[in-house]
Amino acid sequence: MNRISVIARNEFVTRIRTKGFIITTLLGPIILIGFFVVIGIVSVKSLTPESSEIAVLDSGAQLVDRLDHDMISFTPVDVPEDSARAAVLAGQWDGYLVVPDDVSTGGTLRYYTTSGGGSLFSSDLRNTVVAAVRALRVEEQQVDAEVYEAIMATVAFDTVQLTDTGEDRGNTAAFMVVGFFMGFLIYMAMLIYGSVVMQGVMQEKTNRVVEIIVSSVKPFDLLLGKVLGIGAMGLLQMTFWALLIAAGTFFSGAVISLFVDPASLQLPATASTDEVLAAMDFTVPAIGADLFVWFVLYFLGGYMLYATLFAAIGSAVESQQDAQGLTIPVMMPIIMSIVFIQPVIEAPDSTLATVLSLIPFTSPIPMVVRIAVSDVPFWEIALSYGLLVLAILGAVWIGARIYRVGILMYGKKATYRDIARWIRQS
Amino acid sequence: MKTLDVQNVRKQYDEVLAVDNVSFKAEPGRILGLLGPNGAGKSSTIRMISYITIPDEGRILFGNEPVSPRTQAIMGYLPEERGLYPKMKVAEQLVYFGELKGLSRAEAKQKAAYWLDRFGARDWVNKPTNDLSKGMQQKIQFIATILHDPKLLILDEPFGGLDPINADLLQSIIMELKDGGRTILFASHRMEQVEQLCDDICLVSKGQIVLSGPLNEVKRRYGRNTVEIDFEGTPDFVDALHGVRVTQRSSRHVQLQLEEGSDPAAILQAAIAGTDELIRFERMELPMREIFVKAVTEEQGAAAAAEVGTDVNTAGGAK
Predict the structure, then answer these.
(1) ipTM greater than cut 0.85
(2) Class assignment of domain A52-152?
């Protein structure tokens, strides 16, 4: 045990000092935040389309007066369609709108333009035109304006999640995000930290340091110390990021309200931040203790399982290229569980989600996602975790046998057949 | 003061019998030269002694105790292929290796400082090994091997990459450790070093011991029948000699093997007459280098002769 802790400590200390670790730890969130800021800016920009000028061919003058938009100007023209088309192609107009005579009884309006137009622009245009057509119909059918208003008023709809402890109002969407995020972190732990372990094993082997180490400690101790030390490094990085995220969520309301136009929520422009957030139905999700505990457990479990397997592969090869072929079968279940994250979020109680979250090699991601977005029976979680622990013990047992032989094998590219023989022999 | 006792050890890898019924003893306060051509089974034997691998048959005792993690802690192994962490600093690296051998952090630090001083390497303490020359790394590797004051030292080509000054320094430290009662196993292909350092030798070939015993006894077995002559002029005078075999011949040096009944005095006369100036004439024991070549080729020749009948088949089967 003492030797294991010496190895783990050395792995941890020498790794967290490297420039690579410090840069990724500090820059990771900055890059992530930068990414979201860019998305925010782009989408806010596209919410306010650039002003465009549209010619309207409305022979009956049915709509022209009713079309109204801040940024889009509608100009009635009385020319044949051919000349309107020529004018648009010549760049005089951004496009032209043809209003049929039977527009109020279902005739199709057509908008001709040279550019495809952004989806936000076309939805703005469509909304403006639809509102105008509806207003026309209301007038033609002599519907009372008040009645119309009443019918068209916003319908409020809320989803309430029932849990053992009571009700959780309206956070389903937020928990989907939380679940996705946690799933992604576990994915990182398994794939990225797993490959860090593999790299470390390969480096020790190619540097030939390993021969000196195993003349001092058992290969098993070296393997375990390495996996634990790098795991501690990963946990430190994650904890740092988690604290940042916690701080971020705390201020997220204020940040989000900066990007949202109160008018789009039918609020006065003077609406306060709280009012805007309430109208968006946005609340910071409170992550339950059980979700958090399971997340940490699956994070560690998934890491242990894959780190051991990756270490075994690292011991069998001498170069990155040789490793690639061998890593594919190990990476498949990880990739599968991240690919299926969307269906699992959408239907957390489906057979697919249940099966994936029970199989040890795929369980960490789907199970945490399910716990985040739904109420998973305790026995299912217990069974899933029990199987995971068994798989870890199996992986450590097999991995250690491969490792013991692999680290001393040079000059020959190992195949899965060789590895199987090593497991039998040692 | 512990003896290393290798008893009837055998190790097979897949189809290769790497070590076949090998037995020898290495005594404390003496240096045992473990010799043999490449692939003879030296590394396999060393790995079993250092408890990296386990013999299929036979056993290895150190101080009457089977090798184990406990004996590992009092053993220092310098492998032929050097291994250091390239990015770790010298002092950290030494402390880490010391801790792995069971030293406390404080002890390891103190001993690392002592040995770095002895090797005149104090300035490198905070340099990553990457920045050091081959010879410097070699010294660091040696310090890592002896940091925990091992009772058994296994040194595989310890002088590789060292300049003559550092080689002398290392040699004096090895002798000092030997005089301190350590059991030392020395593996090398440099026969002049073997002759200088070793008290006993053990020569393996194809997994088997072909020659072993105290160095001077082994040399006596091969007789005092070698003559070496250094001179100015041409070596042509040897062509006229009778009753000798020429084993080395160059423009300034010849080595001859005396056959039964040949007269060294006559050879000396011929050398004086046949060269411009005679510099050295020495009648001596067969050098270790020749003993090595002779023992290995004779052994392999005998083995090859015994296998002639089956050779064709195995060659075909290996394809």
Answers:
(1) no
(2) alpha beta
